[in-house]
Design brief:
alpha/beta; seven-stranded mixed sheet; five-stranded parallel sheet; 4 helices; 20% helix; globular
Length: 196
């Protein structure tokens, strides 16, 4: 049985990003994100309706400041009491999970997608002259409970950030970070641990 491009994407295999099913959801997510941005911030009922269509799931008491930029939206899962500040970019070509009581600062970018770094491997010549001619694969990003991601940080595919951890502003997180620590820099590294 042939798997769909979406199934390949979520399995972390190379997939065709120009697949019609993926492109249709991509366009829908842009429409929903625009509607969310244009909705009065006091109209919580309408904001909730849009978020429920945009995101894969969300817990209670979630606050997302517009604008937010996503690839598909449906692969983003937020726990209870989460806050996402403005201008965040979530390339959710795989699952992005954010645990309870976590906060994401402004201008944070979470990438659950990537391409080969070797230019000889990057082109997907089997697709010909079409949109999405680069080989594309994905890996999930998991952010634990009670985590603070400082503004302007970038989190790369496959990263897990443990519970009760703080990522300093402007960090580039290319490897997983354990629980109960402060980690900063580019590349991001642990500089302090906290008692559990």
């Amino acid at each position: 049985m042939n798997r769909t491009e979406k199934e390949k994407m979520l399995a972390g295999e190379y997939y065709n990003a120009a697949d019609p099913e993926l492109i249709a959801r991509w366009h829908l997510s842009k429409k929903l994100a625009k509607e969310y941005y244009e909705t009065d911030t006091t109209n919580q009922e309408q904001l909730d309706i849009i978020l429920d269509q945009l995101l894969g799931s969300r817990g209670r008491n979630v606050w997302v400041s517009a604008p937010i930029y996503v690839d598909y939206g449906e692969n983003i899962h937020l726990g209870n009491n989460c806050e996402i500040n403005m201008n965040c970019v979530f390339l959710d070509c795989n699952k992005i999970t954010i645990g309870d009581n976590s906060g994401i600062g402004p201008n944070v970018q979470i990438y659950a997608v990537g391409h080969p770094v070797d230019p000889k491997e990057r082109l997907n010549e089997s697709l010909g002259e079409t949109l999405g001619t680069w080989k594309t694969s994905s890996a999930p990003v998991t952010i634990g409970r009670n985590v603070w991601i400082g503004g302007g940080s970038i989190i790369l595919p496959g990263v897990t950030i443990g519970d009760n951890t703080t990522i300093g502003a402007g960090s580039v997180v290319s490897k997983s970070i354990p629980a109960n620590c402060l980690a900063v820099g580019s590349p991001c590294r642990v500089i302090k641990t906290f008692d559990e």
